[in-house]
Automatic annotation (TrEMBL):
Primary location class: cytoplasm
Subcellular location: Cytoplasm
Protein name according to UniProt: Protein-export protein SecB
InterPro entries: SecB (IPR003708), SecB-like_sf (IPR035958)
Annotated Gene3D superfamilies: SecB-like (3.10.420.10)
GO cellular component terms listed in the entry, alphabetical order: cytoplasm
Amino acid sequence: MAENDQAAAGTENQNQPQFALQRIYLKDLSFESPNSPAVFQEQWKPQVNLDLNTSHSKLNDEGQYEVVLSLTVTAKMGEKVAYLVEIQQAGVFAIKNVEGQQLGHMLGAYCPNILFPYAREAIDGVVNKGSFPSLMLAPVNFDAIYAQALKRKQEEAAGQAKEEQTH
């Protein structure tokens, strides 16, 4: 009887959601300082703009996914670009027994949340190597960004459905 209980427990564990970080890596990094050294002569009061995006792709049937967090940081002094940093911080994640909206949330919010500190550190390092003051990006709420994207997709789908009904 104990063997049957162990076998049943083993089957139950196989169906439990599983998540594992397998690798974090820098996929792409670009730094430009087109107005150096003239920009160093000015008082440092930049306007900093951050654009971010996430993407993911399934690598195989064993539940491995690549998630890529893309960030573009632009620091301007008036109309002049002081520096521009573009980075793609990526990770390979093993995700099993998770489907639908829960999988979408993991790939669109949870995994980027793990990747962000690595991207932030890489950006700060390259900005310092460009002889600029440290840039520590504020934390990002990927859950809110994911929820907004999901809502926008639902609204677009509803709009398309209405358009198709009218034709």
